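Lab notebook: predicted structure, single chain.

Context: the supervisor wants predicted structures on file for every construct in the current expression panel, including those that have not yet been purified. This is the next one on the list. No modifications to the sequence; it matches the entry in the shared construct table.
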Amino acid sequence: MRIGFALPNIGPIGSNDALLKTAQRAEELGYDSLWVVERLLYPTNPQTPYPVTPDGSLPEVYKHVLDPLEVLTFVAGHTQRAALGTSILDMPYYNPVMLARRLTTLDVLSGGRLRLGLGLGWSKDEYDATGATFKDRGARADEFLQVLKAIWTTDPVEFHGKFYHVPKSIIQPKPVQKPHPPIYLAAFTPPALKRLAEAADGWNPVAIPLDGMAQMFDAVKKMAKEAGRDPDSLQMIVRANLELHEKPRGKEGMIFTGTLEQIKEDTEGCRKIGAHEVFFDPTFSPGAQSLDRWLELMEQLRKLVQY
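Prediction complete. Output recorded below exactly as produced.
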């Protein structure tokens, strides 16, 4: 099982110095991958409650955000080996043709290290700001994935759907990775899991108990087989939102919170249920908005988890 770590592109810690030091140290420690998250804006009067906090308010760290793709492109020039992943980009906020070109550029400049995590988003304010709509977002996502793959795998490319149109064109270069960079979906609802089973390369779950992840991934693989795909080709890439505390978490506590020993147990649990990778994001761990603490957590987790 591979082990990755998040880059600090969210919160006051986000800076060129912090990105360089964390990315390069992660490679030195043997981490397999580096990941970024997307947050478009911080609404002062949010229309949609934040699904994680008890009162629905957004965490203060979301007021300071570096764009995920620019961060990965910057880091690509200062690293050699680690995969570069998004967890996740929200499809409704992008035009797939423009995004395909940006992602191809990143894959080419990094020597084929891109991993693409995609989702649908949840914030009404972000939808409004980008001109996106909740209506037909599932159908749009289906076409979005088709457009990406068409651009990456055909030459010349041509696509005509309900929502997106690409006139017969040459769009070069193509990604280094063949047939295309791996696409992971952050899927939770039945329609999204079906989309994952039929069109993606893997699943990027977060904040789901081990038993729940195992059952959902089994269901995804069953749907993939029914769709004529090889279910064993799908990968599970677990996002571990890390909160390290001195006191153990209780029975109702969130996975990847609590003591180091509990986090080690959660990581091993992911391996046992068939996860192909776990990557840690300490953004909300106490003290992690300090670069020294971020680097310390990287060291601690790498010593704790040896795969």
